[in-house]
Structures are given as structure tokens and as C-alpha cells.
Amino acid sequence: xxxxxxxxxxxxxxxxxxxxxxxxxxxxxxxxxxxxxxxxxxxxxxxxxxxxxxxxxxxxxxxxxxxxxxxxxxxxxxxxxxxxxxxxxxxxxxxxxxxxxxxxxxxxxxxxxxxxxxxxxxxxxxxxxxxxxxxxxxxxxxxxxxxxxxxxxxxxxxxxxxxxxxxxxxxxxxxxxxxxxxxxxxxxxxxxxxxxxxxxxxxxxxxxxxxxxxxxxxxxxxxxxxxxxxxxx
Length: 233
Fold this sequence. Notes:
Number of helices: 9
CATH class: Mainly Alpha
Number of strands: 2
CATH architecture: Up-down Bundle
Radius of gyration: 22 Å
CATH superfamily: Transmembrane di-heme cytochromes, Chain C
Strand order of the largest sheet: 1-2
Number of domains: 1
CATH topology: Fumarate Reductase Cytochrome B subunit
Oligomer: single chain
Shape: elongated
């Protein structure tokens, strides 16, 4: 006889550690600033007007913010890569790649729920589901491509150590114009990812009711107690 949903007990599970949550929100801020300033750099607007050039330095501030947050974005990503080796089991890299039979089954079940709009069945993954893990792996590749092309563009106007590491990218991609074009295309990848990400977070919060949205603030999710023993095997 099936157990009524109202009779099922839930237990709080600490999933997202503070470093993971900090990474998430620093990344969100950095991406927001980088995308906004990037579009302004690509298509400057005559926001202010005055007789003296020094009174129109707003564009210099825009460029400074773009470069500064590029470094924040870089070091934040390096930290997350490190935390993927030392964090708890929900933060580790083996949660991003389907290497077990359960992971492949979870990937198919998530596709049915997220894309085909099936009703969720069976136990839910308490950390990243496997579709999210694959998507986040793809975003890391996107982040890397954006950083490489961005610092390659910056290398022509900077003598700093990190930008100069990427001077070789410009001739390989056919010049500054092509590097800038790829950098712009990758920016749209960020925009598409953010829209899908926010939608799915709220969607899973609605269909699962396990605190998906609030967990990235407090770190806690809710898990059915009758699933805990099976999940920890």
C-alpha cells in the first residue's frame, strides 16, 4: 500500500557548502557586470555630453570594471576547480560526469522531466542532477573560452603577466577582429545559460518541493527519510 505524501518525513541535508555558495554568487555578480560592460564596450553609447573630455570618462570606468571583474571571474573559477577536489561529495567533479549506471538513469529521468515535461518518478538526486552536471561542465568550457579570448584581446594593451600569456591566441584565430567576434558569441552563450538555469531552478523547486531555490543561500535541502538509506549505499 502506497504511503500518503503527507505522512512522509523529510530531513534537512546540508548540500552546498559556504565556498560553493560564495562561488555561485560571486560568479553571478561577475557575469552580470562583464556582460553589461562588454556590450557597452562593443557598442558605446553617448550617455553623457560635456565640453571637456575629462568630464566624459564614464567609458574608462566601464572598461576598468570589465577588466577588474575579468580577474575576479578568473580567480573565482580557479577556486571552484580546486574545491571540486576538496569539497564535500556534492561539490566534487564525479558529480558532474555520468560514470555509473544510476547516473545515466538519472540523466534520462531528468531529461524526461525538464524537457519532455513528465511527472517526476522515483528518488531525486539531492545535489546536482546529472543533466545539470553535464550542463555545468559545458559552462566551465564556455568560461574558459571566454577568459582566453578576453585576455587575448587585453594582451595588446597590457603588459601584465596574465594577458601576455594569451598573445598567441590572436594570430591563431586570425586577428583581433575574429577574437572579438568569438568573444561576443560566447557572451550570448552566458545569456542563454542564465535564462535556462533560472527557469530550471524554480521549476525543480516547484515539482520537487525540496528547497532547490533557497539551498544556494542557506546550503540546506530536504530529503525524504525513506530515500536516505538507499541513496547512501
